[in-house]
Amino acid sequence: MQAKGSEFAVGLFVVAGLLALAMLALKVGNIHVLSAGGTYAVTADFNDIGSLKPKAPVTVAGVRVGEVSRITVDPVTYRAVVTLDILKKYRFPRDSSASIQTAGLLGEQFVSLSPGGSRQDLKNGGKIQITQSAIILEKIISQLLYSKAGHSSGHS
Q: I want to staple 44 with a disulfide (CB 3.0 to 4.6 A). Which of 75, 91, 98, 144 is the partner?
């Protein structure tokens, strides 16, 4: 009888360990399960998305409200078209803006929404008109280096 109790305890411990490993794998793999309440899709066009990827978070004031579901290129404007799946429990004004931000100095990129003041909400299939592209650190550094090189060679 005592052996069955210890076998049950060991089995329970193994199952708990496997669940913990599964949760860790989901967290490390940046796989998030959105709420069962469903989502609605909106799009936003950007000149440069940097290293934004599908499944990246969509946040408002640091709170996750959805995720990037698709990234394509508009064949006419050649701008990146980012499709955002927003949780249905969140509604945003139609004149909201979207910007691509970086978590920390070299962290992953995500989309940050800033609510507007319109009385009409974004609907499924809607489009965010006001966008700000990603700030690419490498571009800023190279511009700074070229401007410094231009100034030093001009004074020689």
A: 98
